[in-house]
Design a protein that fits this description.
This protein has one domain. It is mainly α. The termini are far apart. Helices cover 78% and strands 0% of the residues. The model has no long low-confidence stretch (mean pLDDT 84).
């Protein structure tokens, strides 16, 4: 009535799901690595960012 299932159909779906999970984990690790590199650059200039944030409210239209 509903069509016959093949023997290896469940196995193929399981393997594809495993590859999908692996790929998503690799994307997550790559995203975290990019965030680490970005925030490392932000930390290098943190003093200037803070000084600019303190200066801007005092003189907002001076630039």
């Amino acid at each position: 009535m509903f069509g016959k299932r093949k023997e290896g159909d469940g196995l193929v779906k399981s393997v594809m799901l495993a590859y999908l999970i692996l790929a998503l984990h690799l994307l997550l690790i790559a995203g975290i690595a990019i965030l680490v590199l970005f925030f490392r650059g932000v930390v290098n200039y943190m003093l200037w960012i803070v000084l600019g944030g303190l200066w801007w409210p005092a003189f907002p239209y001076s630039c």
